[in-house]
Amino acid sequence: MSQINLTVEQLNQMQPLDIVTSPIVRDKFINIYDTLWGAGTGEAAYERESNYFNKLLRDTPDLQKGTHFSLFTAFIDLAVCGLSLEQGTRALCYLIGRNQKTTPRIDQQGRPMKDQKGYIIYNWEGRVVLTISAYGELVLRERAGQISHADNPVLVYANDEFSFSDKNGRKEVEYVCHLPHTGQRIIACYLRITRADGSIDYSVMTEEDWVRLAQYSARQNKNGGANALYGVDQQGVVNIDSGFLMAKCIKHAFKTYPKVRIGRGTELQSQQVEKEIEINDDLYGVNTETGEVMQTEPQPFGPPANDISAGVTIDAGDDDGF
Q1: What is the largest CA-CA distance in the chain?
Q2: Reduced to 3 states, what is the DSSP secondary structure of residue 157?
Q3: Residue-range definition of the domain harbouring residue 134
Q4: How high does pLDDT run on average in the chain?
Q5: Rounded Cα distance, 189 and 242, in Å
Q6: Structural domain tally of the chain?
Q7: What is the value of pTM for the model shown?
Q8: pLDDT over 70, % of the chain
């Protein structure tokens, strides 16, 4: 293991937009990408993703409030996941900023400070997290060999014919589309998945599901209103956004599937999962005792080198009802 002359303290002294353009961070990204996704692929991926990453930081200044280490790990995790932040209509992954509780506040006597109700008062810090969307999760599950293919989600309207059955573990969907759909409300959404062994699986959401999720969203939001994409009108009727529903259907599909490998600073939009493999400081080249960022040789995992997919980016602003 050869040491790179970069410490966490030096990382903190950089401007947010200078982190991913640092020569040492560049070498780290390329080294990991080449190891995991094929020799010679890392340099082009770095040039592409460093531009996308910094564009998001410039377009969303609040992201620059995240700790510099979280910016570093979010960028390196792009190499770990092999996904892209390229913009488009269907995001594979994107960046979100969130506040994270850290250590208790300490008074002059060295004791944790408490509020009027007796709860410990904590310090908070901003962190940037690479989040993999439902569409990115499809890519990861294909790479992991869990599925061989997934069709696009299908929206079912009130004037269509639709039925869903589950007999002895065998799921069946019967669907007949009746056009036009103008003026008809959406009553269901389903996704057809072909597993790696060729068997078929279906994920189905009905109106009852997203009404329940809209109620959950309203309880979670401080203003008492559901996510605007649920389309709750003044009478409480839910007219869910079609694209939002399709993404929800994909998320719903993999609740019972095995976990997939993601970086330490990354989460799936559908669920925060425990990692199947140990994603530790050695991969990122960070010595938490000395604060040094060092060069390491990561062990490869994931699909063959030629199985690389590009992605797109959005800020989903989504609740986590599943």
Answers
A1: 73
A2: strand
A3: 1-144+258-317
A4: 81
A5: 9
A6: 1
A7: 0.68
A8: 81
